[in-house]
Design goal:
- This protein is α+β, with helices and mostly antiparallel strands and 398 residues long.
- The protein folds into 2 domains: 34 residues; 345 residues, DD-peptidase/beta-lactamase superfamily (Beta-lactamase).
- The strands form 5 sheets. Strands 2-6-5-16-15-14 form a 6-stranded mixed β-sheet, sandwiched between helices.
- It is globular and about 60 Å long.
- The relative contact order is 0.17.
Length: 398
């Protein structure tokens, strides 16, 4: 009996210690409570945070809708993430794809929606937001608000001077995700994901405070690593340089100028705080397609240059950089916060977000594709789709 009591006391002590450690951990990192409760962000998670809205254009642009949709697309064969061949309609089901829309020559020629989705419903786009930051940065350079990508970050955020990790970092280092700053992703198991920087920066209520504490892992400009903090620092610098909040600048210099028909929004860490520009941008599918149209037309909207043509070219023309790894059979590589296929280079590019959010643009066929998904089916069917609908041949690599 005494032995049982001792074991009971021991277990109670261990449980008390565990609870104490958790309490200390949650006090030091309060965002972990939200990480534990909400886990991997879903389609509605952005609503936990304050939003700043981006108003549409006074005279919006409207795509034409084809009288007869190209539903023959349902039957073409594509691959899923396991390289299994299947009809495209099955691919949509396998990836829990909620919306898929194809626009060619300013005409919507294919669209499929799950119940509850439409091309005018506001949807969170996760890391597609990063490409929006790239667009804004190009505009700020054109206006002279930012002199050069080679400017030091501290020129625009002097508040970070007390942290030596930022001493040598340039805006280019951040754009190329070569800041050298320490950052842990969600890979490595459940505990690692729970304690990761990726989770912390999504759920924190004070981005500037957390960003100010970053440490250097490598010298800047040397090693590429995909990380949200580089983009957050860029947008902080943009706000300092322009004197405008992210939503206001995006609204007045981009959104209204492309003929957006609906409101968009940026999620903040707290009221009047910093926008989470790495993953908390919400827009409608039909207006996101207009971002694709802007870049398809080399930065022009109806003859007016909205974003500098040379900035668009720098952003979406593939460059060979062995420091940046490639993914998929198409060998997609990141450049200026866009994703560019390297296999059979022909100028197509994409903005990509978690769970299968996509904006794909193929200048060769004048095609724009928007995909919203709950999971995504993997692989890269967009090239085959754009070629098929344009009457051009395409074969997946062996």
């Amino acid at each position: 009996m005494r032995m049982i009591k001792k074991i009971g006391y021991g277990l109670a002590g261990m449980l008390s210690l565990f609870v104490l450690v958790l309490c200390i951990l949650f006090i030091r990192r309060p965002e972990l409570i939200r990480v534990l409760r909400y886990q991997t962000p879903a389609a509605e998670t952005y609503k936990l945070y304050p939003q700043t809205f981006v108003n549409p254009a006074d005279s919006p642009f409207h795509f034409v809708k084809a009288e007869r949709m190209r539903n023959d697309l349902d039957t073409i064969l594509v691959f899923d993430r396991d390289k299994k061949s299947m009809p495209f309609k099955d691919y949509l089901e396998a990836g829990k794809i909620c919306l898929f829309m194809v626009i060619r020559n300013d005409t919507v020629i294919y669209q499929k929606f799950k119940p509850g989705y439409s091309d005018t419903g506001l949807t969170t786009l996760f890391s597609v937001a990063k490409s929006m930051v790239s667009i804004m940065l190009g505009q700020a350079i054109e206006e002279g608000k930012i002199k050069s990508l080679d400017d030091h970050l501290l020129t625009y955020i002097p508040e970070l001077k007390e942290n030596p990790a930022f001493d040598q970092i340039t805006l280019r280092n951040l754009m190329e995700m070569k800041s050298g700053l320490e950052f842990s992703g969600i890979e490595g198991g459940l505990i690692a994901a729970f304690l990761s920087d990726e989770a912390k920066y999504y759920y924190t209520r004070d981005l500037k405070k957390e960003l100010s504490k970053l440490k250097a892992a490598h010298p800047p400009g040397k090693i590429w690593k995909y990380k949200s903090v580089d983009v957050m620092l860029l947008s902080w610098a943009l706000e300092q340089a322009t004197g405008e909040k992210t939503a206001t600048y995006f609204q007045d210099h981009i959104w209204k100028k492309i003929g957006a028909a609906h409101r968009a929004s940026w999620g903040l860490d707290h009221v009047d705080g910093l926008a989470n520009t790495a993953s908390r941008f919400q827009a409608t599918a039909i207006d996101l397609a207009k971002i694709g149209r802007l870049y398809l037309n080399k930065g022009k909207y109806n003859g007016h240059q909205v974003v500098p043509e040379d900035w668009v070219a720098q952003s979406v023309h593939a460059k060979s950089d062995p420091a940046i790894p490639v993914k998929g059979w198409q060998k997609t590589r990141q450049n200026y916060l866009w994703w560019l296929p390297q296999e059979g280079v022909n100028g197509d590019f994409a903005a990509e977000g978690m769970r299968g959010q996509r904006l794909y643009v193929d200048p060769l066929t004048h095609t724009i594709i928007v995909q919203f998904a709950l999971r995504g089916a993997g692989d890269y069917p967009y090239r085959k789709i754009s070629r098929y609908l344009s009457g051009l041949p395409f074969t997946f690599p062996e």
